[in-house]
Design a protein that fits this description.
One of its GO terms (molecular function) is UTP:glucose-1-phosphate uridylyltransferase activity. This protein is of the alpha/beta class. It has helices spanning 36-46, 61-66, 71-80, 83-90, 109-114, 117-120, 141-151, 227-234, 245-253, 278-290, 296-308; strands at residues 5-9, 30-31, 34-35, 51-56, 97-102, 125-128, 132-134, 154-160, 170-176, 186-187, 190-191, 197-205, 216-224, 263-267, 272-274. It has a single domain, classed as Spore Coat Polysaccharide Biosynthesis Protein SpsA, Chain A.
Length: 311
Protein backbone atom coordinates (compact mmCIF):
# COMPACT_ATOMS: atom_id res chain seq x y z
CA UNK A 1 0.00 0.00 0.00
CA UNK A 2 1.83 3.07 -1.26
CA UNK A 3 0.84 6.32 0.48
CA UNK A 4 1.57 9.34 -1.71
CA UNK A 5 -1.03 11.98 -0.83
CA UNK A 6 -0.94 14.68 1.82
CA UNK A 7 -3.54 17.21 2.92
CA UNK A 8 -2.49 20.50 4.50
CA UNK A 9 -5.31 22.66 5.93
CA UNK A 10 -4.49 26.37 5.57
CA UNK A 11 -7.93 28.02 5.67
CA UNK A 12 -7.70 29.40 9.23
CA UNK A 13 -7.99 33.15 9.78
CA UNK A 14 -4.88 33.45 11.96
CA UNK A 15 -6.54 35.80 14.44
CA UNK A 16 -3.75 35.36 17.00
CA UNK A 17 -1.40 37.19 14.63
CA UNK A 18 -3.59 40.16 13.81
CA UNK A 19 -3.13 42.75 12.43
CA UNK A 20 -0.55 41.29 9.99
CA UNK A 21 -2.87 38.40 9.07
CA UNK A 22 -5.55 40.85 7.97
CA UNK A 23 -3.90 40.81 4.53
CA UNK A 24 -1.23 38.09 4.76
CA UNK A 25 -1.97 34.42 5.54
CA UNK A 26 -0.40 33.25 8.78
CA UNK A 27 1.16 30.36 6.83
CA UNK A 28 3.17 32.93 4.87
CA UNK A 29 4.81 34.41 7.98
CA UNK A 30 8.57 34.01 7.44
CA UNK A 31 10.75 31.63 9.41
CA UNK A 32 14.01 33.43 8.63
CA UNK A 33 13.70 33.59 4.81
CA UNK A 34 11.05 30.99 3.97
CA UNK A 35 7.34 31.01 4.81
CA UNK A 36 6.21 28.50 7.42
CA UNK A 37 4.11 26.63 4.86
CA UNK A 38 7.19 25.79 2.78
CA UNK A 39 8.76 23.90 5.69
CA UNK A 40 5.61 21.79 5.95
CA UNK A 41 5.45 21.02 2.22
CA UNK A 42 9.17 20.14 2.26
CA UNK A 43 8.54 17.67 5.10
CA UNK A 44 5.77 15.97 3.15
CA UNK A 45 7.91 15.82 0.02
CA UNK A 46 10.87 14.26 1.86
CA UNK A 47 8.52 11.52 3.14
CA UNK A 48 7.56 10.61 -0.43
CA UNK A 49 4.22 12.42 -0.36
CA UNK A 50 4.40 14.04 -3.78
CA UNK A 51 0.66 14.72 -4.29
CA UNK A 52 -0.31 17.53 -1.93
CA UNK A 53 -3.70 19.18 -1.47
CA UNK A 54 -3.84 22.54 0.30
CA UNK A 55 -7.26 23.28 1.79
CA UNK A 56 -7.47 27.06 1.51
CA UNK A 57 -9.91 29.91 2.08
CA UNK A 58 -10.73 33.02 0.13
CA UNK A 59 -8.00 35.11 1.78
CA UNK A 60 -5.21 32.64 0.99
CA UNK A 61 -4.38 33.54 -2.64
CA UNK A 62 -0.80 34.39 -1.63
CA UNK A 63 -0.18 30.72 -0.80
CA UNK A 64 -1.34 29.62 -4.24
CA UNK A 65 0.89 32.24 -5.88
CA UNK A 66 3.89 31.17 -3.82
CA UNK A 67 3.78 27.61 -5.15
CA UNK A 68 3.29 28.80 -8.73
CA UNK A 69 5.85 29.94 -11.31
CA UNK A 70 6.82 33.62 -11.49
CA UNK A 71 8.11 34.13 -15.05
CA UNK A 72 8.95 37.83 -14.69
CA UNK A 73 10.95 37.37 -11.49
CA UNK A 74 12.70 34.28 -12.85
CA UNK A 75 13.65 36.14 -16.02
CA UNK A 76 15.13 39.04 -14.02
CA UNK A 77 17.20 36.67 -11.86
CA UNK A 78 18.45 34.76 -14.90
CA UNK A 79 19.44 37.99 -16.59
CA UNK A 80 21.39 39.00 -13.50
CA UNK A 81 23.02 35.60 -13.24
CA UNK A 82 21.79 35.28 -9.66
CA UNK A 83 21.57 31.48 -9.62
CA UNK A 84 21.25 31.21 -5.84
CA UNK A 85 18.13 33.38 -5.63
CA UNK A 86 16.72 31.77 -8.76
CA UNK A 87 17.07 28.32 -7.16
CA UNK A 88 15.27 29.55 -4.02
CA UNK A 89 12.38 30.86 -6.14
CA UNK A 90 12.08 27.66 -8.16
CA UNK A 91 12.41 25.30 -5.18
CA UNK A 92 8.82 25.52 -3.84
CA UNK A 93 7.41 25.03 -7.35
CA UNK A 94 9.27 21.75 -7.80
CA UNK A 95 8.62 20.21 -4.38
CA UNK A 96 5.49 18.26 -5.35
CA UNK A 97 2.35 18.31 -7.44
CA UNK A 98 0.24 20.77 -5.49
CA UNK A 99 -3.53 21.11 -5.72
CA UNK A 100 -5.94 23.51 -4.03
CA UNK A 101 -9.52 23.28 -2.77
CA UNK A 102 -11.44 25.90 -0.80
CA UNK A 103 -13.07 25.30 2.55
CA UNK A 104 -16.10 27.53 2.12
CA UNK A 105 -16.99 27.79 5.80
CA UNK A 106 -14.44 27.40 8.63
CA UNK A 107 -16.11 24.49 10.43
CA UNK A 108 -13.05 22.94 12.07
CA UNK A 109 -10.22 20.56 11.24
CA UNK A 110 -12.55 17.63 10.68
CA UNK A 111 -14.44 19.59 8.05
CA UNK A 112 -11.18 20.67 6.39
CA UNK A 113 -10.18 17.01 6.09
CA UNK A 114 -13.61 16.17 4.70
CA UNK A 115 -13.06 18.76 1.97
CA UNK A 116 -10.26 16.51 0.68
CA UNK A 117 -12.49 13.47 0.14
CA UNK A 118 -12.91 13.81 -3.60
CA UNK A 119 -9.19 14.31 -4.14
CA UNK A 120 -8.04 11.52 -1.81
CA UNK A 121 -10.60 8.91 -2.81
CA UNK A 122 -10.08 5.43 -1.32
CA UNK A 123 -6.43 5.88 -0.33
CA UNK A 124 -4.62 6.42 2.95
CA UNK A 125 -3.27 9.95 3.22
CA UNK A 126 -1.29 12.19 5.56
CA UNK A 127 -2.51 15.39 7.20
CA UNK A 128 0.05 18.00 8.25
CA UNK A 129 -0.83 21.08 10.29
CA UNK A 130 1.20 24.21 9.71
CA UNK A 131 1.44 25.23 13.38
CA UNK A 132 3.81 22.32 14.09
CA UNK A 133 7.15 22.43 12.30
CA UNK A 134 9.09 19.16 12.63
CA UNK A 135 12.86 19.41 12.32
CA UNK A 136 14.09 17.64 9.18
CA UNK A 137 16.70 15.85 11.31
CA UNK A 138 13.90 14.10 13.26
CA UNK A 139 11.37 13.00 10.62
CA UNK A 140 8.35 11.30 12.15
CA UNK A 141 6.21 10.83 9.04
CA UNK A 142 8.15 7.82 7.64
CA UNK A 143 7.52 5.80 10.82
CA UNK A 144 3.85 6.83 10.83
CA UNK A 145 3.45 5.82 7.19
CA UNK A 146 5.01 2.44 7.97
CA UNK A 147 2.63 1.85 10.90
CA UNK A 148 -0.33 2.69 8.67
CA UNK A 149 0.92 0.26 6.04
CA UNK A 150 1.34 -2.51 8.63
CA UNK A 151 -2.07 -2.04 10.23
CA UNK A 152 -4.35 -0.53 7.59
CA UNK A 153 -5.58 1.89 10.27
CA UNK A 154 -4.94 5.51 11.13
CA UNK A 155 -1.88 6.90 12.94
CA UNK A 156 -1.34 10.09 14.96
CA UNK A 157 1.82 11.71 16.26
CA UNK A 158 1.89 12.01 20.05
CA UNK A 159 3.93 14.19 22.37
CA UNK A 160 4.42 13.80 26.12
CA UNK A 161 3.44 17.11 27.75
CA UNK A 162 3.20 18.29 31.38
CA UNK A 163 -0.13 17.24 32.84
CA UNK A 164 -1.18 20.84 33.43
CA UNK A 165 -0.88 21.56 29.69
CA UNK A 166 -2.91 18.63 28.39
CA UNK A 167 -6.08 20.77 28.20
CA UNK A 168 -4.49 22.52 25.21
CA UNK A 169 -4.50 19.34 23.09
CA UNK A 170 -6.37 16.28 22.07
CA UNK A 171 -5.36 13.54 24.52
CA UNK A 172 -4.87 9.81 23.86
CA UNK A 173 -5.72 6.81 26.01
CA UNK A 174 -3.17 4.29 24.77
CA UNK A 175 -1.39 1.01 25.46
CA UNK A 176 2.03 -0.12 24.18
CA UNK A 177 2.12 -2.42 21.17
CA UNK A 178 3.91 -5.76 21.07
CA UNK A 179 7.72 -5.33 20.91
CA UNK A 180 7.82 -7.20 17.59
CA UNK A 181 5.45 -4.66 16.09
CA UNK A 182 7.82 -1.71 16.59
CA UNK A 183 10.83 -3.58 15.18
CA UNK A 184 12.57 -1.63 12.43
CA UNK A 185 10.79 1.65 13.15
CA UNK A 186 12.84 4.75 13.94
CA UNK A 187 12.64 8.54 14.16
CA UNK A 188 15.73 10.56 13.38
CA UNK A 189 17.90 7.45 13.42
CA UNK A 190 16.69 6.41 16.88
CA UNK A 191 14.94 3.02 17.13
CA UNK A 192 11.39 3.10 18.50
CA UNK A 193 10.38 0.87 21.39
CA UNK A 194 6.98 -0.69 22.04
CA UNK A 195 6.29 2.25 24.37
CA UNK A 196 6.86 4.63 21.45
CA UNK A 197 4.38 2.87 19.15
CA UNK A 198 1.02 2.56 20.89
CA UNK A 199 -2.51 1.43 20.15
CA UNK A 200 -5.07 4.10 20.94
CA UNK A 201 -8.27 3.04 22.71
CA UNK A 202 -9.76 6.50 23.11
CA UNK A 203 -9.24 10.19 22.38
CA UNK A 204 -10.52 13.23 24.26
CA UNK A 205 -10.39 16.77 22.88
CA UNK A 206 -8.81 19.24 25.37
CA UNK A 207 -9.69 17.45 28.64
CA UNK A 208 -9.16 19.01 32.03
CA UNK A 209 -5.93 17.77 33.67
CA UNK A 210 -7.82 15.77 36.28
CA UNK A 211 -9.91 13.99 33.62
CA UNK A 212 -7.14 13.35 31.09
CA UNK A 213 -6.43 9.65 30.48
CA UNK A 214 -2.69 10.31 29.94
CA UNK A 215 -0.15 13.02 29.21
CA UNK A 216 0.08 12.00 25.54
CA UNK A 217 -1.00 14.93 23.39
CA UNK A 218 -1.95 14.69 19.73
CA UNK A 219 0.20 17.02 17.62
CA UNK A 220 -0.25 18.09 14.04
CA UNK A 221 0.75 15.00 12.07
CA UNK A 222 -1.70 12.28 11.02
CA UNK A 223 -1.83 9.39 8.58
CA UNK A 224 -5.49 8.59 8.01
CA UNK A 225 -7.44 5.68 6.60
CA UNK A 226 -10.11 6.68 4.06
CA UNK A 227 -12.60 5.19 6.52
CA UNK A 228 -12.34 8.51 8.37
CA UNK A 229 -14.47 10.22 5.71
CA UNK A 230 -17.63 8.22 6.42
CA UNK A 231 -17.21 8.87 10.13
CA UNK A 232 -16.64 12.59 9.60
CA UNK A 233 -19.84 12.77 7.55
CA UNK A 234 -21.72 11.60 10.64
CA UNK A 235 -19.74 13.54 13.25
CA UNK A 236 -21.73 16.26 14.97
CA UNK A 237 -20.06 19.58 15.75
CA UNK A 238 -18.28 19.44 19.08
CA UNK A 239 -16.24 21.92 21.09
CA UNK A 240 -16.50 25.41 19.61
CA UNK A 241 -19.23 24.34 17.21
CA UNK A 242 -16.62 22.72 14.96
CA UNK A 243 -16.33 19.23 13.50
CA UNK A 244 -13.45 17.75 15.45
CA UNK A 245 -11.08 15.30 13.78
CA UNK A 246 -10.37 13.95 17.28
CA UNK A 247 -14.02 12.86 17.62
CA UNK A 248 -13.87 10.94 14.34
CA UNK A 249 -10.62 9.22 15.31
CA UNK A 250 -12.11 8.29 18.70
CA UNK A 251 -14.94 6.57 16.82
CA UNK A 252 -12.48 4.68 14.60
CA UNK A 253 -10.58 3.55 17.69
CA UNK A 254 -13.67 1.77 19.04
CA UNK A 255 -13.57 -0.97 16.40
CA UNK A 256 -9.90 -1.81 15.73
CA UNK A 257 -10.72 -5.12 14.01
CA UNK A 258 -12.91 -3.51 11.37
CA UNK A 259 -11.13 -2.88 8.03
CA UNK A 260 -9.71 0.64 7.90
CA UNK A 261 -10.50 1.23 11.57
CA UNK A 262 -8.11 1.15 14.52
CA UNK A 263 -5.93 4.06 15.56
CA UNK A 264 -2.26 3.95 16.52
CA UNK A 265 0.21 6.52 17.79
CA UNK A 266 3.91 7.21 17.37
CA UNK A 267 5.40 9.09 20.32
CA UNK A 268 7.59 11.90 19.00
CA UNK A 269 10.65 12.86 21.06
CA UNK A 270 12.52 14.96 18.49
CA UNK A 271 12.85 18.64 17.70
CA UNK A 272 9.59 20.45 17.08
CA UNK A 273 8.87 24.13 16.64
CA UNK A 274 5.49 25.54 17.62
CA UNK A 275 4.39 28.56 15.57
CA UNK A 276 0.90 28.66 17.05
CA UNK A 277 1.19 31.96 18.92
CA UNK A 278 3.44 35.01 18.90
CA UNK A 279 5.87 33.93 21.60
CA UNK A 280 6.28 30.39 20.28
CA UNK A 281 6.64 31.76 16.75
CA UNK A 282 9.54 33.98 17.87
CA UNK A 283 11.15 31.02 19.62
CA UNK A 284 10.87 28.98 16.42
CA UNK A 285 12.54 31.70 14.35
CA UNK A 286 15.43 31.97 16.84
CA UNK A 287 15.92 28.19 17.10
CA UNK A 288 15.94 27.62 13.36
CA UNK A 289 18.11 30.65 12.65
CA UNK A 290 20.66 29.52 15.23
CA UNK A 291 20.95 26.15 13.46
CA UNK A 292 21.47 27.59 9.97
CA UNK A 293 24.81 26.79 8.31
CA UNK A 294 24.97 30.22 6.66
CA UNK A 295 23.71 32.37 9.56
CA UNK A 296 23.99 30.27 12.70
CA UNK A 297 27.52 31.07 13.88
CA UNK A 298 27.18 34.85 13.55
CA UNK A 299 23.65 34.83 14.90
CA UNK A 300 24.57 32.76 17.95
CA UNK A 301 27.49 35.08 18.70
CA UNK A 302 25.23 38.13 18.49
CA UNK A 303 22.50 36.40 20.51
CA UNK A 304 24.95 35.49 23.27
CA UNK A 305 26.02 39.12 23.62
CA UNK A 306 22.46 40.40 23.41
CA UNK A 307 21.11 38.08 26.09
CA UNK A 308 24.11 38.75 28.34
CA UNK A 309 23.21 42.43 28.27
CA UNK A 310 19.68 41.66 29.48
CA UNK A 311 20.83 40.08 32.73
Amino acid sequence: MAITKAVIPVAGLGTRFLPVTKTSPKEMLPIVDKPAIEYVVEEASRAGLDDILLVTGRTKRAIEDYFDVSPELEQVLRRKGDDEKLASVLSPVDLATIHFVRQGRPRGLGHAVLCARQHVGDEHFAVLLGDDLIDERDPVLPAMLEVAQRTGGSVVALLEVPQDQIQLYGCAEAVPTDPDFSAGLEVGGEALSSADVVQINGLVEKPSPEDAPSNLAVIGRYVLSPAVFDVLEETEPGRGGEIQLTDALAELAKSPDKPGHGVYGVVFRGRRYDTGDKLDYLKAVVQLAADRDDLGADFREWLHGFTAGLQ
